[in-house]
Amino acid sequence: MKKGLIKKVCASALVGVMVMSLMACGKKEEKNNLTAIKDNGKVVVGLSADYAPYEFHAVVDGEDKTVGFDVELAKEVAKDLGVDLEIKEMDFEALIGALQAGQIDMIISGMNPDEERKKQIDFSDIYYEAQHAVLVNSADKEKYKKIDDLNGKKIGAQLGSTQQKIAEDKIQAGKISLLASVNDLVLQLKSGKVDAIVTEEPVAKMANKTNPELVLSDISFKDESGGNAIGVKKDSKELVEAVNKTIKRLKDSGDLDKFIIDANDLAAKNQSK
Questions:
Q1: How far from each other are the two terminal CA atoms of the chain, in whole angstroms?
Q2: Which residues form the signal peptide (predicted)?
Q3: Is 129 helix (H, G, I), strand (E, B) or coil?
């Protein structure tokens, strides 16, 4: 009886060891996202390149390139991680799904870390803070002084953006036009298909600089989410810590401010050609 009991105990212990070993192997195989990026030798960044000065297309040295504030930030992140950078362009509303599906490693696209997005992905520290502005035709500036002046009007916003939520939640619009491209929204405003566009202030200022017939109204919205942050997959603690180090370095050195100034200048030069 004692021998039988001992055999059972040994067998149970052996099964337990095997299970723990398998669990340990599984954990080893499931690399954290930072390790996976480094092993792959590149970081794939998703963005929507229609959002000057954050990310946009420009002719540089005779070649069409994806450039902008966020692109420069992405380069610095890749450099600090010791990997190459690959940019994947897609519509803004597709970015979170692409990240969750493993098609990209992170989002650097002027994204606000609101509570709904935080349920789906993790975010870095804030790297840039901006207000949300309302862009209108210059002839209509005096018509739009306060939020109530937008009631019943046709309002444009980028699909899937924080500005869409502002248009839906804070403005009693008569109609909301949602498009994937900010450039297309600007065309709608210029042609009178919408009365105003809600967008981030740097983007509105850039549109004003390249389209003098458009102006920023006196209406603005505070960025309740705190600003722009880099998005990564859920449970990416190590990757978030690494990215935050880059953001801190660039803030302390003043390079982030330089990036936004240079991006504004490049966008203006590109539009004037």
A1: 93
A2: 1-24
A3: coil
Residues 94, 196, 211, 159, Cα dihedral to 10°: 0
Own/partner pairs, 25-33, CB within 8 angstroms, 24+ separation: 32/236, 32/237, 32/238, 32/239, 33/105, 33/232, 33/233, 33/236, 33/238, 33/239
Q: Map residue 163 onto helix, strand or coil.
A: helix
CATH number of 33-129+226-272: 3.40.190.10
Domain pair 33-129+226-272 / 132-221, same fold: yes
What is the number of other CB atoms lying within 10 angstroms of the CB of residue 121?
A: 20
Q: Where are the beta strands (DSSP E) in 48-105?
A: 56-60, 63-67, 84-89
Could you state, in order of their start, the residue ranges of all structural domains in the chain?
Answer: 33-129+226-272, 132-221
116-173 tens-digit pLDDT: 999 999 999 999 987 899 999 999 999 999 999 999 999 999 998 889 999 999 999 9
> pLDDT by residue (tens digit) across 213-251?
999 999 999 877 678 999 999 999 999 999 999 999 999
Given phi > 0 = left and psi -120 to 50 = alpha, else beta, which region is 45? beta
For residue 26, what pLDDT is reported?
A: 42
pTM here?
Answer: 0.72
What's the pLDDT tens digit per position in 81-104?
Answer: 999 999 999 999 999 999 999 999
